[in-house]
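One-letter codes give the sequence; the fold follows as tokens. Both lines appear below.
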Amino acid sequence: MAREILLFDVGGVLADWDGTTPLVTLTDGRLTREEARRFWLEFEPLAPFETGQSTCEGFLEAAVEALSLNMTPEAFGWYGAARALGVSAFQVKGKEALEACLEEKGYLLP
């Protein structure tokens, strides 16, 4: 019997994410690995996004513009890749929103 699993990897503990190599590739080498690393450290829209104070769309638009990428924000976004793999991905802000999203999807909460 197949089981559905809900996995949270908030801190990148289970999935190793290399955020520098893709930026070097996406910018066709305009950024070095060090510049890509510094981009994530210094990119001001990142902190509000990570703390739920900005939208995913706003973050993606800012990143595409800052990197001068020739692609849509949706194409740049991680959720596009997740959906292509058949993985459900949801962005929610706060505990109550997360609980509501999970209950809507049929997950039982204690």
Observations:
- The chain has seven helices and no strands.
- The chain has a mean pLDDT of 79.
- The two ends are 24 Å apart (CA to CA).
- The chain has one domain: 21-104.
